[in-house]
Specification:
Blueprint (H helix, E strand, L loop, with lengths): L2 H7 L6 H11 L28 H11 L1 H5 L3 H12 L6 H9 L6 H14 L3 H14 L5 H7 L6 H8 L4 H12 L6 H9 L2 H9 L11 H8 L1 H7 L4 H15 L14 H10 L8 H16 L11 H12 L12 H10 L13 E7 L8 E7 L2 E2 H5 L8 H4 L12 E7 L4 H4 L1 E9 L2 E8 L9 E4 H13 L6 H15 L2 H4 L4 E8 L2 E11 L5 H8 L25 E8 L5 H14 L11
Antiparallel strand pairs: 1-2, 2-3, 4-5, 5-6, 6-7, 8-9, 9-10
């Protein structure tokens, strides 16, 4: 009998738990299923999409369906009654789980017994989802085998992993890797972890490329592989330590939202192990750049927020500083930008804050081998504010906060956006603060968009605050030549708007794209080209808005934005000082119609 025939032969009353055990048992070599095993034939599966009910209506229906859970002390009767009732609820299973998570549970022991019966005997995903939602709150070590089994089924992995997270992080991570990864890059690692082959786990880790698309799952990769245990078992394995550094650095970033390093339990131990063996691999440009990136994370990034012992983080930075005192290895012309970044940034993470310094600004540039982010890190009492209060994306670029004077404390209060969600403000929000001057203090308050409780007001000595903002505005040591040129061009266009208006052109974005960081893009737009027929009609007195008498009619309405022409003028860095290049661009705009310089449309 084929696997499919055997699957169909299961009785309709077979629990999903027993079905999952059966499916995994007939899997060749016990291979871990990508995206989960399909549900039994004829099973409706998890209800997709959005509920047509309002949140309050759904809450009432879930409470009514789960009433036996609260009223009947017998877990068998309660589970059977809940099983029948939730089957008829018309809402996605994730909505059902969300409401179960908020349900008051006066008798947690009885609720736990009911949850166990639902997860072990439930024959549809709604009933099993209720049991999983309860075990997210109430699960214990004895529930781990059932949760691991249910997580093998399509549509149940994320709920099962959420229940496993406080009980068995490695098992939870393995389920999520199999469920969430769209790439086959992780297949060797998943198979190796599932079979317990630690040598294959190590090999799968070190072969993951630094730019692998699956690295947005860096924390789950480290947890599934038991990275901390691997490092302790292989203290001489320099290649493995380099892979650990890549995972730590990716976890500390905020490209995909909240920095995962804050949820990685062995983070301190893995940092200690990495720095303790930082001099093991042979000197190489890539290794030097990786250690510098880790140092920047420890100095002013999200890693600062970990629960360090007094002096522990500073000792790690001191150790990295000693290793990175060695000359930068020569990588040749092919990696010029990376070498220049190391030389510009090399000592930044090793500069200690002055005693009593409360407010500090650090502009940090990522390794150019990655899609380079440039962020303005604001540190208060040594702690970075954006990951502390927001955690949905990195701090804004210096062009937004420093070049505009946005952080200055003027006579009037003003609001500043410090960060925007990695997706978009319209999707997941942004972090705003109002800056005002109060006597000899500068006050940050009236926060908007913070995650969690409303942040307190922060008060700073006005003289020290003004000095730090001024220093940061003047400091361009972090900046590469083309980006400096872009900044000077933008400033010149602000000071001399006639350079573009004389050509009936409006300015757009001026900056460097991460794909071509050594080229300045100058964007601008212009009205649509005149229609010759329309011009002829106007001259004959027949134009739109032209009255029968002499004199011009009303001015034509501005062209809609959608009908404008957009241009991009690409200005490659030619090696001259940024001031000279920016002046040449501005002079060119003074004498030449920019529409003849840029490509259009784009």
């Amino acid at each position: 009998m084929s696997a499919r025939d055997e699957r169909a032969a299961l009785t309709p009353g077979t629990s999903l738990h027993d079905y999952a055990l059966f499916r995994q048992g007939i899997e060749p070599d016990g291979r871990f299923p990508r995206r989960g095993h399909p549900l039994p034939d004829g099973h409706p599966g998890p209800k997709p999409g959005r509920s047509r009910l309002t949140w309050h209506q759904a809450e009432e229906e879930v409470a009514a369906a789960l009433a036996p859970l609260l009223a009947d002390p017998d877990p068998v009767r309660a589970a059977d009654a809940v099983h029948l009732r939730v089957r008829d609820l018309v809402m996605p299973d994730r909505t059902l789980r969300a409401h179960v998570a908020r349900l008051p549970l006066p008798d947690e022991a009885a609720a736990r017994r009911t949850a166990r019966r639902l997860t072990r005997t439930g024959t549809d995903t709604a009933a099993v989802s209720v049991g999983l939602a309860l075990l997210i709150r109430l699960g214990e070590a004895e529930d781990v085998p059932v949760l691991k089994t249910l997580g093998l089924l399509r549509g149940l992995a994320r709920a099962a992993a959420a229940a496993l997270d406080p009980l068995d992080r490695q098992a939870a991570a393995l389920l999520l890797l199999a469920d969430r990864s769209r790439s086959r890059e992780l297949t060797p690692l998943i198979d190796a972890v599932a079979t317990g082959d630690t040598e294959a786990v190590r090999d799968a880790l070190v072969t993951l490329a630094r730019d692998a698309e699956v690295l947005w799952l860096a924390r789950r990769i480290a947890e599934a592989a038991d990275l901390d245990g691997l490092l302790r078992a292989r203290p001489e394995d320099g290649t493995l330590f380099a892979a650990a550094g890549r995972l730590l650095h990716r976890m500390a970033g905020q490209r995909e939202g909240r920095a995962e390093i804050l949820d990685y339990r062995p983070a301190l131990a893995v940092y200690e192990a990495l720095v303790g063996h930082a001099d093991r691999p042979a000197p190489a440009l890539g290794h030097h750049a990786l250690l510098l990136s880790v140092a920047l994370d420890l100095h002013s990034g999200t890693a600062v927020l970990l629960d360090w012992r007094p002096g522990q983080r500073e000792a790690l930075l001191d150790a990295l500083g000693r290793v990175l005192q060695e000359p930068v290895p020569d990588g040749g012309p092919a990696v010029r930008r990376r070498t220049e970044w190391i030389r510009r940034t090399g000592r930044q993470p090793f500069v200690r804050a002055a005693a009593g310094e409360r407010f500090r600004i650090e502009v940090v540039v990522d390794d150019p081998a990655d899609p380079p982010a440039v962020e303005t890190r604001i540190l208060v009492d040594g702690r970075p504010l954006v990951p502390l209060l927001f955690g949905k994306g990195p701090a804004n670029a210096p062009e937004c906060l420093l070049d505009t004077g946005g952080l200055r404390a003027g006579a009037e209060p003003h609001e500043v956006q410090l960060a925007e969600a990695y997706c978009a403000e319209g999707c997941c929000g942004a972090l705003y603060v109002t800056i005002r001057r109060d006597g000899d203090e500068v006050v940050w308050g009236e926060w908007r968009g913070a995650v969690g409780p409303t942040p307190p007001e922060y008060r700073f000595d006005a003289a020290a605050y003004d000095a730090e903002v001024g220093r940061a505005e003047r400091d361009r040591s972090w900046c590469w030549p083309a980006r400096n040129t872009a900044r000077l061009i933008k400033a010149g266009l602000r000071e001399r708007p006639d350079l573009l208006t004389r050509w009936d052109v409006e300015p757009g974005w001026v900056g460097t794209d991460w794909r071509e960081p050594d080229t300045v893009d100058v964007d601008f737009s212009a009205p649509p080209e005149p229609d010759p027929a329309s011009e002829t009609g106007t001259e004959a007195g027949q134009g739109q808005g032209q009255g029968p008498g002499p004199g011009p009619g009303p001015a034509p309405a501005p062209a809609p934005a959608a009908s404008r022409r957009y241009f991009r003028w690409a200005v490659p860095d030619d090696g001259r000082p940024p001031e000279v290049q920016a002046a040449a661009v501005l002079e060119r705009l003074a004498t030449t119609d920019p529409k003849t310089l840029g490509t259009a449309p784009f």
